[in-house]
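User: Can you predict the 3D structure for this chain?
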Amino acid sequence: MRVILLGPPGAGKGTQAKSICNKYSIPHISTGDIFRYNISQATPLGIEAKKYIDKGHLVPDELTIDLIKDRLKQDDCKKGFLLDGYPRTVNQAEALVVLLEEMKLKLDT
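Assistant: Here is the predicted structure, written as structure tokens:
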């Protein structure tokens, strides 16, 4: 199962995500978790993202989609995944569509 959950803060995304991920044994993926992990591991993408975060800037969409791509290629995503709160912009949504097509993945509807 491949799922995207979108909604404003307090809408219950986290609660629903936990339930869905437990039921289908899929990873719960958020950009915040991806940023923190890559920064803590000092990956090349994490180092680049940290430069923006340290300045109080948003991480550019291109870098964010590269981080998402790396995460979706991991073994635990082979049976599916849940993206929590991503994409946030039209540009990110368009980039995600391209990424999923490149990876030959379809979202469940």
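The chain has a mean pLDDT of 94. The helical segments are 13-24, 31-40, 44-54, 61-72, 90-102.
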